[in-house]
Write a structure and sequence with these properties.
This protein is an alpha+beta fold and 948 residues long. The chain contains 38 helices and 16 strands. The strands form 5 sheets. Strands 8, 10, 11, 14, 15 and 16 form a 6-stranded mixed beta sheet that branches. Strands 7-9-13-12 form a 4-stranded antiparallel beta sheet, with no helix packed on it. A two-stranded antiparallel ribbon has the order 1-2.
């Protein structure tokens, strides 16, 4: 600790001056371990008697790779000498590999000399493997010096010279080097010579797409794509050759050719392409789209999936070709049509004899080329139909996403593709069904559902998967239905499905809320039937706790918000139920001009106060707390009053509850620390435990906290850590048996963290923090007991910590457990020693790191387990807006595993959601910060029955 804090502590916080001569400064040099330096191994290369020994030695050099800066040049020289005398190609490859590693990882390496040496070594090389590794080394080393244009051109010329090699690996490496290292200038700085030279490079790479080896052809096309990504414009003349490569025998070539075809089609959409008949012309964007559609019938699954993905990202395609992808019938207008007069004139010119009964009745038919006959549909005809009906899940998923992307920008295509997306709800793979549901939700603003489509959607509501059912709820809530009959079908099916899956209650409530808001005119004629309103008879009052009746109320009340005509239809008990729902579920029921004329507490909180009013309230509460002229007792009384008022403000103003709770919690920590220090027997353990937990809450449970506020919290945490060290018997937050050494280590860790935080925030520390830093710097080798005796007077004499100014942007991370319910009376019975699973559903709002969430299980015998939920059990909340402070809203769906020995009677097990935070850098388990009140589950482990 002395070495870490002395520099900053003595420089900024020590105010004393000494006349004694300055202490001698020590220069610490890290001494290399004997036998681990790579330079020693390089010197042993000369003594190797065989290539195998040399290779083993090179492998040891590669493992340690620790060179002094002065030894790097000599090591490269010895490696180069051994390269020239080595006969085995594998050893020479390893030496060139080491050149690359030395240049990248060793700080004293000269990259230019390494590049020169590599070029010299592979100049007269005959082994293809060695040349390929040499080009790869030049590529990696050249990437580090990409700003040197002259050097890059030299490396490109070296790659050009080696392109004549017969090995495919050498050619691929050379093409890769040219594409990644060829200097590309901005268009404004290019001269005519630069443009001509760049076109020559593009032509060179394009020529190698005709190579015999498929790997070279693939790398040539990939190099063209790399050049384009770096800013080089590709010539449109490549298009015809790329089209020919779509029929290549190897799928790796067809795959990369598809990417290049899509690129050229999007870059030159309006260029004209002449079809093979020599007369018809077509836009390049349309022609590229048709050719990509043909790849949907490819034999390779990867090519088919890529083709579907590229179709979704293709733009500027004509509607007639786009719509043809959803129809398997061949297009009749793909070729130029001729009139009957033109066809007759052609028969006359043919000179064929006719009987006269019919014009040219015995004329010879037109010869048909064998290659022009297709047994399967080609082009754009039914491309998406084939993709959606593919046998492999990857292709169907890519096709669904492509249809969704195209539908979001084209309402006509969205309407046409609706039937196909709805049919995908019956897919055998759950992931495909979920993708289709999400896609239909995204394009819901373009479509209107008919009865036949609704039947398929509502039939999928019986799916066992919760993801599918909730996705269908989102669809029904966001789509528009065509008629009153459709809406009636939806309501009946939703209510029926709610009886089968009661756990979908919250998702169903959100669904009917959006359905009522978007279909007010259709809900109006159904109001009397839904609410069981009779013109002559008084119907029985429904149970407001019935989930089905709650769905109907939410639907009708949200529709009444946009259609006030149905308000007079409400009976007296309906209005009472509205008031109840408005108080219990204000986020689902809107405000209506019925019932009590006064606003409820929620409406007042939403409309009465604004930012300025809350800020004035904060200033009024905290205006005299930091007044140093007042006595400590008066300030403490004001702090207690401020804590009560801020807690009430957090209940009244949910929008500003984070800022209010943050300030109130800080005030409570100050009060609790003051009371603990004044205890007769020293700070009590339970008070310090609660203080440490509150400090962790201040540090980790709140977001949008400024660095200045974090500095105030850090200084308060430092005081708490010092109080833990001064406590009797060195009591800490973990257990009474924890030694004082742990408390001292925690204090040191807090001081290190606070030192960095104060430096980054630019905040001047208070008097106590300065004193602690000086004490730690001066007593780095002292025992914890001596440190505690020195800190206790400082703690007692220190003034009250400064309360940070109110920041209304602060938000608090909270959690709410939905299942199991608080009023759950079911007893979980299982055999003792075995495991029982309790379904848990919770919503966590504004969490910074979802991976830090834990499920805390507390047993009656004070045993506590922190369970880590799997990642796939955390899902994003879809009904809340995205947060602007970088936090996330997640939903936790998991099963809590409970196990224990035999109990004489059922007892409660508390389950809560916590946040795991690292308090210290030691080996102690992470501390837990509770985000909600625990829910109690009654458990009864039964003894195991012996015998039959």
């Amino acid at each position: 600790m002395a070495a870490l804090l002395k520099k900053r502590a003595l420089a900024e916080y020590n105010k004393s001056f000494q006349d004694s001569p300055p202490a001698k400064k020590l220069h610490l040099v890290k001494k290399p371990l004997i036998g681990s330096s790579a330079a020693a191994f390089v010197g042993l290369l000369e003594k190797c008697k065989s290539s195998e020994e040399a290779l083993q030695l090179l492998l040891r050099i590669s493992d340690c790779l620790q060179f002094q800066e002065s030894d790097v040049e000599e090591a490269i020289k010895k490696l180069s000498e051994h390269f020239q005398s080595e006969e085995e190609s594998v050893v020479r490859v390893k030496i060139l590999w080491l050149f690359c590693d030395i240049g990248i990882e060793c700080p004293g390496a000269n990259l230019n000399s390494l590049i020169e040496e590599t070029i010299h070594l592979i100049k007269n090389e005959t082994s293809h493997k060695v040349i390929a590794q040499g080009i790869a080394t030049l590529l990696k080393l050249g990437t580090k010096l990409s700003d040197d244009k002259i050097l890059m051109m030299r490396l490109v010329n070296v790659a050009k010279d080696n392109l004549k090699d017969t090995s495919h690996s050498v050619k691929c490496r050379c093409l890769q080097l040219i594409s990644e290292l060829y200097p590309i200038y901005p268009e404004s700085d290019r001269t005519q010579e630069m443009t001509t030279e760049a076109d020559a490079i593009v032509k060179l790479l394009g020529d190698y797409s005709n190579a015999e080896d498929a790997r070279v052809r693939c790398e040539a096309f990939q190099s063209l794509l790399t050049l384009h990504e770096r800013g080089q414009t590709l010539n449109v003349s490549l298009y015809e050759h790329v089209c020919e490569s779509l029929s290549d025998d190897y799928e790796i070539v067809r795959e990369v050719a598809l990417k290049l075809l899509w690129l050229l089609g999007n870059k030159y959409p309006e260029n004209s392409i002449t079809l093979p008949d020599g007369e018809t012309t077509i836009r390049m964007a349309d022609d590229a789209f048709i050719r990509i559609c043909s790849a949907v019938n490819d034999l390779c699954m990867q090519v088919r999936a890529l083709a579907c993905s590229l179709l979704g990202s293709t733009r500027a395609v004509s509607d007639r070709f786009l719509l043809q992808t959803l129809d398997k019938q061949l297009m009749s207008n793909m070729k130029k049509k001729r009139t009957a007069h033109e066809r007759g004139a052609e028969l006359v010119r043919s000179g064929a004899w006719a009987s006269g009964r019919r014009w040219a009745d015995d004329a010879p038919g037109q010869l048909v080329e064998q290659e022009s006959v297709q047994l399967l549909p080609g082009g754009a005809a039914g491309a998406f139909v084939h993709g959606l009906e593919d046998e492999l899940m990857e292709v169907r998923t890519a096709a669904v996403e492509a249809v969704c992307q195209l539908s979001m920008e084209n309402p006509i295509f969205a309407t046409t593709s609706l039937d196909f997306l709805v049919d995908m709800f019956n897919d055998e793979i759950e992931d495909v069904r979920v993708r289709a549901i999400d896609s239909l939700t995204k394009i819901s603003h373009h479509i209107i559902l008919r009865e036949d489509q609704l039947e398929i959607i509502l039939g999928a509501l019986e799916d066992f998967s919760m993801d599918v059912r909730e996705g269908l709820h989102r669809i029904l809530g966001s789509c528009t239905v065509a008629s009153k009959t459709c809406l009636e079908m939806c309501i009946d099916k939703i209510l029926e499905n709610l009886k089968r899956y009661p756990q979908d209650k919250r998702s169903t409530f959100r669904c009917v809320q959006r359905m009522g808001s978007s279909h007010a005119s259709l809900v109006l004629p159904l109001t009397t039937r839904l609410l069981a309103v009779h013109p002559f008879f008084d119907m029985p009052e429904p149970d407001v706790e019935d989930p089905a009746y709650m769905c109907i109320l939410i639907l009708v009340l949200n529709a009444a918000q946009h259609c006030t005509t149905m308000l007079p239809l409400f009976e007296e008990h309906t209005i009472k139920h509205y008031t109840y729902l408005r108080d219990t579920m204000p986020h689902l029921v809107p405000h209506l001009p019925i019932g009590e004329s006064q606003f409820s507490r929620t409406e007042r909180s939403e409309t009465a106060m604004d930012d300025s009013a809350v800020r004035r309230f904060f200033d009024t509460v905290l205006q005299h707390i930091d007044n140093v002229t007042l006595s400590a007792n008066v300030r403490l009384k004001m702090l207690r009053s401020a804590e009560e008022q801020l807690n009430k403000l957090s209940e009244v103003e949910p929008m500003f509850s984070g800022a209010a709770i943050f300030t109130a919690l800080f005030a409570r920590c100050v009060l609790a620390l003051h009371d603990a220090l004044l205890a007769a027997t020293g700070p009590p353990a339970h008070a310090l435990t609660q203080l440490t937990t509150d400090c962790l809450r201040l540090q980790h449970q709140f977001s949008s906290v400024t660095e200045q506020e974090s500095a105030c919290v850090g200084q308060l945490a430092l005081r708490v850590a010092a109080a833990r060290l001064c406590a009797p018997d060195g009591v800490t937050t973990t257990s009474p048996s924890t030694s004082s050494m742990t408390a001292a280590a925690a204090l040191t860790h807090h001081a290190e963290m606070l030192d960095r935080l104060l430096a980054s925030a630019g905040v001047e520390p208070d008097a106590f923090t300065i004193a602690v830093f000086q004490q730690l710097s001066a007593s780095g080798d002292h025992k914890p007991a001596a440190l505690a005796r020195a800190l206790m007077p400082l703690l007692l004499a220190a003034p009250l910590p400064t309360i940070p100014k109110p920041n209304l942007k602060i938000r608090m991370c909270t959690a709410s457990i939905l299942e199991p319910g608080k009023d759950n009376d079911t007893v979980v019975r299982f055999s003792a020693g075995l495991v029982a699973g309790v379904a848990l559903e919770a919503e966590v709002v504004r969490v910074r790191e979802p991976g830090a969430l834990r499920v805390r299980v507390a047993y009656p015998d004070r045993r506590v387990h922190a369970l880590v939920p799997p990642r796939d059990h955390l899902r994003t909340l879809d009904h809340l807006d995205n947060n602007d402070d970088g936090t996330q809203n997640v939903r936790l769906l998991t099963k809590v595993l409970i196990s224990h020995g035999v109990w004489t009677e059922p007892c409660g097990v508390d389950i809560s959601i916590c946040l795991a935070v690292e308090e210290t850098s030691g080996r102690e388990p992470a501390s837990l910060v509770e985000l909600c009140r625990p829910v109690r589950v009654t458990v009864a482990p039964k003894p195991i029955k012996r015998g039959i």
